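Worked example 4.2. Below are the chains of a multi-component assembly; read each line carefully before continuing.
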Amino acid sequence: MHRLFVIPTLLINVSIILIPALLTIVLAFYRWDGISDPTFIGFANFEKLWGDRIFWKALKNNFIWTAIFLVFPIAIGLLAASLLLIIKRGRTLLQVIYFLPMIIATVITARIWQGMIYNPQNGIIALLNQYGFELRDPLSQTSTALFGVAVVDLWHWWGFMAVIFFAAMRQVSQEQIESARIEGANYFQLMRWVLIPAIKPTIALMMIMTVIWSFLVFDFIYIMTQGGPAFSSEVLSTMAYRKAFYELDVGYAATSALVISLFGLTAAFFYIRIQNKEGVE
Amino acid sequence: MNLVESRTTTTIIYIILAIAAFTALFPIALMVLNSLKTTPEIASSPLALPLTPHWDNYTHAWQGAKFSKTFINSAVLMSMTIFLVLSTGSLTAYVLARKKIKAWKVITAYLLATTTAPIQLFLFPLYFGFAKLGLINNVFAVSVVYCALFSPFSIMLLRTYFLAVPKELEEAALVDGATPWQVFSKVYLPMVWPGLLTVALIVGLYTWNEFLIATTFLQASESRTAVVSYFLLSGQYSTDWGDLMAGAMLVTAPIVILFIFLQRHFIEGMTGGSVKG
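Applying the procedure described above to all two chains together yields the following structure tokens:
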């Protein structure tokens, strides 16, 4: 009887995710335009990927993205969370404010930044130019496009980290914190020896998730730069999407998708191990 | 933390936290402010207050993005997804929480694994498969895709609510001769409704905001979601920023209002599972 209970979930999940995922693995060995019959071409897609300049650029950008997001949101989140722990009034309000960017659709967030901040005709950048700063739209420069998008994603993301770390720090025992303070620990010592060690599992989990998410990043880049200018902000997911739906090279797109998954999978392995330890109570 | 901090320390802490709050709110304030201004006004300064509030922007955006149609599409898609996730997810969450079947460990691991799978890993065969079956532009088909995407985390979240229900209640019901279905629907479901509400809110939020699947699978103008129609609007007239900010306000306002009233549910739901207690 209870077996019937899990059938709807499994049926939906297997037909939407598992079967198409397995088909993607098969497709990586075929040339296919999405319409006519696929042709088996062995490892040709993989060889093409190896020699593709844009693939290496995209992979490098994914690594840069991962590095940015492993450092900044986690550092800012830890700082904000620990300060929230010290203050007595305004915690709830500040948490709600920090969390707010997280609930706004990526399309909306992207357009606000593009129109109101980065836009050289009527954004904050235009205003700064009037005051003599020589600034250009970061999204239009090959050297800054990726970082321009990363700043927007960072704006939308750091508050989420702050709220998660704050929730974890609240569970650290009061006596531990107080005794450290009585012994004269300053803020940095308190962080180094009490708070960070106490919430290490949460930080580890967030770092694993950051690696996974950084290889999946799509929305902000696709909406704001489409991977441009001149592929300077291309990542693996935007590259695969373009190959499949603009160039109708579905087999090649599947091969790129496999590479994305490989990086995600390594991180996911550690994620499942941590989560399952929690599940077996 | 009940520690006496010096006044200077407290002030510095509040200043840092206020700067952080300002950073979070500043772009949102720009959206609100400029949604009421004409394009020349925005160009002269994005920070200035509007001379007279320009409510026209809202009607322009509403008509330009065909929101009267696409808001309904988004609402329908949202309701179907919430219904699917709650009905299928609560059953699975119950079975996994109470370890009713031997395979509970395998299923848990499988569901966790799918949460980390990149959408691109299954997107391409799924799209061309749906195209073959004539399911592109079909709102129900997309709600099934969302159900597959959002179920795993919903199940993990619901599982914790099922775990909190005392086992004795179930045992008592079984002694009274209740069937497994009755135990689930009469004993458990009434007790886990706060979890169901939280999951409904999060799934609703994600569905309303989702871009990649929506833009790929719902392309026809009759089936587009609000977010996608806004995306297309902002691609067309990328110079009329007053209208675009008004459109942004329209898409964001329902979510923000709901968030302010039910922030505890949102925050607990979205951060749930990340904090190891």
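Take a moment to check your reading of the output against the notes. The mean pLDDT of chain A is 90. The domain at 43-279 of chain A is CATH 1.10.3720.10 (MetI-like fold).
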